[in-house]
């Protein structure tokens, strides 16, 4: 798919992707700004998009850069603090983006004028970021396929405090690229040479679902080894619902960013099973509501909690903090699971259910409620 056809109209998955990025940018900025104000002589935060595309799709839909700048131009702290850098290798996209940005109401309120660049993304940009100590930055990477996307590029940004990365990649192109010697250099840049060779061997003979799990797991492991301690993938399916088109992957060195993004991705998931998000946008689930009916992830969480915390006494928040990383559960799922276990008399809680208040007809399970897990017999 070439760039011209891609930007004719905004696909629904592109709208979801943009909404996830925009939502995270807003919450991330609200968390980061108070600390930056206290610690920096010239308080600044940054948003960087190296594959920015045009400002609008041909159907008039706003692209992610425009949505981010609209948010910033209407908020006083961001008006004074946001440094924004947008890059695209296509001169037409750059001109379109510049025109769209200049037409944003209130864009003149920004203290730092958005920088719009026209460069190929390669080693020179990576080296520039590696050599610099970056201000807190949200870094968005959305290439057409894989050219320019590398571990070094992501690490060059997330190495510094307050810097997180969100990148969007075409799964099918990477899946095919791993067995194509002509693009071996790009696969080595994304996975690391040793891991790229290992994954290429592992994929032989696997079915499509196993291939996808192997590829995404390898990317997540590479990012974690690089220092991105908290990695969270979100999958996009084709309209038919039977094949993956893209993945959006979040990378952070701080658990707070991970928690925030997990909540956002959970809300944007097209499917909830027992209230547990699928971390997937699948248009087919709207037509196939019974597709995952037999999956009961909340029951699995209850069993995990009984096994993991056997014989221990701790608060609900301690349970959540010690368990949720690398799990598909958000805080409300832990509250629901513990409430269910309490109702089944499989755990005890202090204060007990009859001493806690109700909300919308249901007994609440506050962060401070103490939970006692029975020891295994």
Write a compact overview of the structure shown.
With 377 residues, this protein is an alpha/beta fold. It contains 15 helices and 15 strands.
Report strand order across the widest sheet: 3-2-1-4-5-7-6-10
Distance between the termini: 59 Å
Rg result: 22 Å
Shape summary: globular
Task: Indicate the percent of residues in helices.
Answer: 40-55%
Overall domain count: 2
The share of residues in extended strands comes to 15-25%
Major sheet description: 8 strands, mixed
Q: Topology as H/E string?
A: HHEHHEHEHEHEHHHHEEHEEEHEHHEEEE
Q: Please, what is the CATH homologous superfamily of the largest domain?
A: Vaccinia Virus protein VP39
Q: What does this protein structure show overall?
A:
This protein is α/β, with parallel strands linked by helices and 377 residues long. It has two domains: 3-276, 3-Layer(aba) Sandwich (Rossmann fold); 297-372, Arc Repressor Mutant, subunit A. Helix content is 45%, strand content 16%. The strands form four sheets. Strands 3-2-1-4-5-7-6-10 form an eight-stranded mixed beta sheet, with helices on both faces. Strands 11-15-12 form a three-stranded antiparallel beta sheet. Strands 8-9 form a two-stranded antiparallel ribbon. Helix 14 packs across helix 15 (331-343). The longest helix has 28 residues, at 12-39. The radius of gyration is 22 Å and the shape is globular. The model is unreliable at 1-10 and 286-294 (pLDDT under 50). InterPro entries: GMT_wHTH, Tcm_partner. This is GMT-like wHTH domain-containing protein. Residues 280-353 form the GMT-like wHTH domain.
